[in-house]
Design goal:
about 150 residues, mainly beta, Immunoglobulin-like, five-stranded mixed sheet, four-stranded antiparallel sheet, about 40% strand, elongated
Length: about 150
């Protein structure tokens, strides 16, 4: 009987490992900056897994909402619960972090960043590694001339 119990315990330990092995993982760590108030000619932009321009004159932007959509088609959904989306809000230093399990295959994901008073940005990127890094630069919305 002991042999069967050992086998059962071994199998019970392998089930979670097998389940995890079938899933992938996606993490995006980044920082959101704001352009200076007078710089409204350049659009908002995101740099994912590539070097951004010099950020020396930019200010960290707290309170920006950040989403990572595992399927870009989900961005149009109005359902309150979406399985393949992660969300965070930038802290005082403009930093954010999202992470979760996902499909195990290579796919196109989408980073979306929004903050009131700023132009938002949607940036598709190829998910082909576990960890991604992002730098997002938001531009203030232009005010209409009166």
């Amino acid at each position: 009987m002991s042999c069967y119990q050992d086998l059962l315990h071994t199998l019970l330990r392998l089930v979670p490992v097998a389940a995890i092995a079938c899933d992938g993982y996606i993490a995006v760590d980044g920082r959101v900056y704001a352009r200076t108030a007078g710089d409204t000619l350049r659009p908002s932009e995101a740099f994912i897994d590539r070097d951004p321009p010099d950020t020396a004159g930019l200010l960290p932007l707290p309170g920006a909402a950040v989403w990572v959509f595992h399927r870009p088609g989900d961005t149009a959904s109005v359902t309150p619960y979406q399985l393949w989306v992660n969300r965070d809000t930038t802290g005082p230093s403009g930093r954010f972090h999202t992470a979760s399990t996902t499909a195990s295959a290579r796919f196109t994901a989408l980073l979306r960043v929004r903050r009131i008073g700023y132009q938002g940005v949607d940036a598709p990127f190829v998910h082909d590694t576990f960890n991604h890094r992002a730098v997002v630069i938001l531009t203030r919305e232009r005010r209409p001339i009166r």
